[in-house]
Design a protein that fits this description.
The chain is largely without helices or strands and 80 residues long. It has one domain. Helix content is 14%, strand content 0%. It contains 1 helix and no strands. The protein is globular, with a radius of gyration of 13 Å. This is Cysteine-rich CPCC protein. InterPro entries: Cys_rich_CPCC (IPR025983).
Amino acid sequence: MGEHWVPVACPCCTSRTGGGTCPVCFWTDDGQSDADADVVRGGLNGDLSLTHARLNFAVYGASHPRYQDMVRSARPDERP
């Protein structure tokens, strides 16, 4: 009972937002990781591979430029 829960880190921006669609970069965690980061899986992330989403985050602050107005900065407790 005394354990402290640490949210899962987003595979795209590394913020600890807990999975699902990350409010910091708008990547939807679909289980993709470094092992298959160059694969375009389709689904909720559309035509983005995780590698491309990471590059977009570095450049635009969002997993895709179209999400720039939908994201927010990571809160202090979410930062890697």
